Structure formats: structure tokens, C-alpha cells
Amino acid sequence: MAVELSSKSAYMIPLCPLVASCLTGSFSFFFPKATRSLRRLCAASNIFSLVIAMFISFVLVWKQASTHSIQQYLWAWIPKSGFRLKIGLLIDPLTLVMSILVTTVGIPVMVYSDSYMCHDQGYARFYAYLSLFTASMLGLVFSPNMIQIYVFWELVGMCSYLLIGFWFARSSAANACQKAFVTNRIGDFGLLLGLLGIYWITGSFDIYELCDRFLELTSNGAANPTFASTVALLLFLGPVAKSAQFPLHVWLPDAMEGPTPISALIHAATMVAAGIFLLARIFKLFSTLPTVMSTISWVGGVTTLSGATLAFAQKDLKKGLAYSTMSQLGYMVLASGIGASQSALFHLITHAYSKALSSSGSGSVIHSMEKVVGYSPDKSQNIFFMGGLRKYMPITGITFLLGTLSLCGLPPLACFWSKDQIITESWSNSPYLGLIASGTAGLTSFYTFRIYLLTFEGDFRANQINYMESYTSYPPEYVIHSWGGGQLDLLPKQTRNNFTSLDKKREELLEIANLGTVPISKRGRSYETIQFSSGRNLLYPQESNLCMVLPLIILAIPTLFGGLIEINSVQKGYGLNLLLDWLISILSLPELHKHFEKLMEILISSIPSLSVSLIGLSISLKVYGHLDKIFDTKVNEKLGGRDVENVFLVYVRNWSLNRGYIDYFYKIYFVRSVTSISKLISHLDQWIIDGFINGAGASNLFGGESIRHAKSGRISQYLFGLAVGTVVLLQLVVDFPIPPLP
């Protein structure tokens, strides 16, 4: 009875953040001044609501570990009709693990947001959106039927639209949220058609019921295979858009226009995780259709490879992490397509903590860089303005390094265990998919370690460029900005000479900062500091405060040890409730010995994939430390090097910086086509349809006006008209007599 009562209390998990969001939003709308003065209290209430949800989730997991049962609690929504629909809660291992994931990632992100958004006027509104976002995701994972999933699916999309465009006054943020919304509408429309199709086939929206019926009908041949495959692919179109799979991935890099805490939450536990969760939830449906499974695996394979190549030479710190997320999501979809849904979920969990750590670390860096280079994302997020930050931000640097090494797939960090499982199963399913998975592991190590090296190692580069931003000894009209010119002719000759040399150095450094890869030949120089008579002091980033550093430390713990929960999964053969079994088994020496043997077996079998990751990491270290190789074409021409290798590197750099030219392709062939068709329809509506209606109205108006003037109401005029008409009629009768009847 206690377990039943505890399970029924699961409705509190999505309800707590939902109530907190509604209260915060209502107070912010009706009492804006009071809310601003009590905004820390609003933040604390939102965090506390998610803590309650996390506590209930852990209690339910503890109960679930002893019973291994699946429970549903349903209430009639549409009870008296031919179409009956129930809403409620579904409690199973997948639901509870996702609930723990969302809450344990959401709480550090909320704590982190308190410091990151402390100076923002929309502080309370941000927390209202954040709680609604987590409530929508929690409602999604507890949904027992596809209709309820679709409702919360759309709520997740709406919250992402609000949060990506949180700084809507900035045109880039407004465009980014619209792009994410429209791109996801494509996938959501396919998902809606798939839901209608699956109801047509099975007559049910209940997840377990429709999966069992679909399996039975397809096995017996009662369902048309082509129609069944089409419906399954339409269902898959939803996760393709939501989880940023090729070719609907284009919204994810632009989604980084939102505040960094949202980037961490979207990349880790909410938006992109929803697609992988749906694949796992209805995996039984997809597994009966080989064509659909093959399509899913290859979409994942193409996504993971393209995401890795697109991240190669990104200058923006957050966009580099965005393409990393895209690539890792491709791993999960690939694993789902080859039948390894458990490995996909395992990688979803390990990647969530690692990416939340990396994204939060990037936010800490950006937050500190803004005080040095300003609030322009082109500067504060440009990794070529950074460098050497580990000296000034040691905690952020160490935790970011842990997240980086985890994404590289190095033991004993979390992503190593999950990624190795996917690579092993890819090779057993298809050598081509295995080659893609293994090759992408090396590319991942290269670009993730590249981001770390350019951000945290070397010398701090922003001051070299910032010194050239302005010369504060003179009035504003004499200021020279790095993005514009100045009135040098009005300055003294000696100062003009100083500025001339300064401008040359500025151009040289900005040229390096705008490269996809820093030329090693130029990076090796030590740029001297130019001192002015004003005695201006150089600014350096500082470590973030406790509210931002503490979540990084907390997220580093599962990044370090989160992968160990799945070591025993293959032996046990049971889904995802393995942490308790692992903790209990290590208390006895025989079980500990078995686990050690299993650990060594996994490490030995992972040597090939681990070697590839180490090779990628070593190449990254050499390219950004010792080798005399460059990517930029102009600098390459200056040095006289135009060999095949450099041409290839220039091509890779351009491919990455231009996003694989996919956005250009969409703009030319889809956006312009839709715009042209819309303009054509607008002209058709304006000149043909409206013209016909307006013409009819104008003709009635003119006809009425003419009749009004003709009908003056004078009897004499009417008698005159009658007489004239009679005379004309008689004249016609005389001229054209009527012939007699035969």
C-alpha cells in the first residue's frame, strides 16, 4: 500500500515546477515592482519546487528497484463518447530515470542562473520560463499515451521558443527562436500525421497497447507494410527535428542566442532529450520494421559525422558545443536504429551531465569575458579572444576539462562507457556504421580538445586586441575602434605614429582572431604590451562567484562517476535501475572481484575506439601547440605554402565556418521559393481576387449613382420618358410589322 501511495504521488513531480512557474509568472505580471524587489525569493521558490520533484523521483526509484513493476494511474478525460481518452501517469524504469535526469540537471542550472541572470531585467520571467520548461519535460516523460505526449511535446517546443528568444530585442535572438519554431513545426506536423496513422492501424493511443497491437498486426501481415513503414517514418520525423538530426538540425546552433543556462538545459535534459526519449518509448513499434530501423540508423550516422565536421573550426564557443551536441545525439539515434536502445539511453544520461557541465563552464567563461571585451557575442564568445583562462579561472578550467575529456570518451569518465557500447554494437551491425562511429570518436576528441586549448591554455589574447579598442587620453572623436576608423589627422604626429603601428598590430591580431584556426607561425610570437601615457591597466577575467562555480562542481561528480552505473547492465540484463545493485554488490568481495573482471574486459575491448580518441586528442594538441600548420588562405599565401594539405585544411575550415553550406542551400531552394510563392499568392489575392470583388463593388456603386441621378422624383420627367418610350415603340411596330400567323 505504501508503494502504491508513493507511486500515486508521482503527479507532484511535474506539478511542483508547474505551480512555481504559474505563481512566478502571475506575480511578475500583476505586481512587477514587488516581484523585482523579491526576485531572489521567486528564484528560491522555483529551485525548491524542483528539489521536491527530485526528492519524490529518488523515492520512487528506490521503491521501483525492489518491485521492478510498471504502474499506470489513469483518469477519464473524454469519458462519454465513441472516442474515449484517459490521461494520467506511467511509472516505469525509463520514466523514473528520465525524471531524475531532468531534475538533477535542472537544479544546478537554476542555481547557476541566479548569478548569470542577476543583472537582467527579466530575471523573474526567466525563472518562470525555466520552471515551465522543466515541468513540460517532466509531463512528457510521465505521459501514458501519445496524445498526452504530443501536448507536452508542443509545450516543450513553446518553452524553447520563449527561452531562445528571451532577449528578443536582439534581432539575432528573435530570428533564432523563429527558426527553431518553424523547423520544429516541420517535425511536429510529421509526428501529428504519424499519430493519426498509428490510431488508424491500432485503434489506440495508449503506448503499451498500440505497440503490442502494431507488433501483432505487422507480424500477421494484417497491416499494409508500406503504410506501416510510412507511419513509422512520420513518427520518426518528430525526433528528427526535436533532437536536431540531419537535415533538420539547422536550428540548434542558432539556439545559442538564448542565455547560456538555457543552452545547458536544452542540450542536456529537455529539448533534444525529448526526441531520444520518444524513440525509446515506442522503440518496440520501430523494431518490427527493418526499413525504418535502417533509415533511423543512417540518419543518426550522417548526423554524428556531419556534426563533428561542422564543429571543426567554429570560432563561437557555444556554437562549437552546439555542433558537439548534434554529433552526440547522432550517436544516440544511430544506437536506436541498430536496436541498442539501452545504449542510446545510457549515452543520453552520460552525455547530459557532461554537456551540462561544458555548457555551464562556457557560460562562466562568457560571463567573465564580457567584463573584459564587452557584451557583444562576437567578442565574448569568440575563442580566439580567450586563451590562458585556466590561470584566472582554475575551477572553471578544471571542470571544463573534465567535461571535455568525457566527451572525448576517455576512461573512467562517463561518456567513455556509453560511447564504447555504441561503437561496439555499430561494428557488429554494419561495418560502415562502425567506421562512422569510430571515426567520429576521433573527430570528437580533436574538436572538443581544440575548444579547451584555445579557451584555457596559452596566453590571454583579448588584451592584445582590446588595447587597440580605444585611446582614452583623447576625446571621443579621436577614439579608434577595432571595427572602425578614427580621425588620425587631428592628432599630434608622434601619436599618429603610435596609432599607425598600433593599427597594424590590431589588424594582424584581428586577422588571427577571425581565422577558423590560429596560425601556429603567428601564435608563437609574444606580442609586447603597448603602454600609453594614460597608464591604462589591463583587464583579465576572474573566477565566477560561488553560485556559478558550485553547480560546476556538482555536475562534475556524475561526469566523473556516472558511467559506472552501467558496467553491470549486460550481466544483469535489466534496463536502467542498476545503481542500487552496483552499490550493494561492491560490499562483498566476490561480487567486487566479478565487477573488476568485467571492468578489465570492457577496457580491453575498448582499446581500438580508445586509440582513435587518443589519436584525435594528440593531433589537436600538436596542431594547437607545436606544428607549423595554418588554415587561413591569405596567411598561407604570404608564407608561400600552397600544398595539398593546406588546401584541404582550408576546405575543411570553410566547410565548418559556412555550416556545411546547408543553410545557404535552404535559403536558396526553400526560403526563397516559399517567399516567391508567397509574393505570387499575395499579388494574385490583391489583383485578381480582391480586384474582382472590388470591381463588383465599384460597378454597383457607379450603377447606383447613375440610377440615383436618373430617378429625380419629378412626375413631369417620368411622363416625358413614358411618352418618348411610347413613340419609339410605335415607330418600331410600324417599321417592323408582326407577320400574321399561318
TrEMBL record:
Enumerate the spans annotated as NADH:quinone oxidoreductase/Mrp antiporter transmembrane domain.
Answer: 143-443
- Assigned EC number: 7.1.1.-
Q: Where in the cell is it found?
A: Plastid, Chloroplast thylakoid membrane
Q: Which UniProt keywords apply?
A: Chloroplast, Membrane, NAD, NADP, Plastid, Plastoquinone, Quinone, Thylakoid, Translocase, Transmembrane, Transmembrane helix, Transport
What Pfam families does the record tag this protein with? Proton_antipo_C, Proton_antipo_M, Proton_antipo_N
- InterPro entries on file: NADH_UbQ_OxRdtase_chlpt_su5_C (IPR002128), NADHpl_OxRdtase_5_subgr (IPR018393), ND/Mrp_TM (IPR001750), NU5C-like (IPR003945), Proton_antipo_N (IPR001516)
Q: Which GO terms describe its biological process?
A: ATP synthesis coupled electron transport; electron transport coupled proton transport
Superkingdom of the organism of origin: Eukaryota
Name the principal localization, coarsely classed: plastid
A GO term, aspect molecular function: NADH dehydrogenase activity
Q: Does the keyword Thylakoid apply?
A: yes
Q: Which GO terms describe its cellular component?
A: chloroplast thylakoid membrane
Coiled-coil region(s): none
What's its catalytic activity?
a plastoquinone + NADPH + (n+1) H(+)(in) = a plastoquinol + NADP(+) + n H(+)(out); a plastoquinone + NADH + (n+1) H(+)(in) = a plastoquinol + NAD(+) + n H(+)(out)
Q: Where, by residue number, does the polypeptide cross the bilayer?
A: 12-31, 43-62, 87-112, 124-143, 149-169, 181-202, 262-283, 295-313, 329-349, 395-418, 430-453, 548-567, 602-624, 718-738
Describe its membrane topology: Multi-pass membrane protein
Sequence ranges assigned to domain NADH:ubiquinone/plastoquinone oxidoreductase chloroplast chain 5 C-terminal in this UniProt record: 450-685
Give the UniProt family note.
Belongs to the complex I subunit 5 family.
This protein's assembly is summarised as: NDH is composed of at least 16 different subunits, 5 of which are encoded in the nucleus.
Tell me, what does this protein do in biology? NDH shuttles electrons from NAD(P)H:plastoquinone, via FMN and iron-sulfur (Fe-S) centers, to quinones in the photosynthetic chain and possibly in a chloroplast respiratory chain. The immediate electron acceptor for the enzyme in this species is believed to be plastoquinone. Couples the redox reaction to proton translocation, and thus conserves the redox energy in a proton gradient.
Protein name according to UniProt:
NAD(P)H-quinone oxidoreductase subunit 5, chloroplastic
**Annotated source species:** Pyrrosia lingua
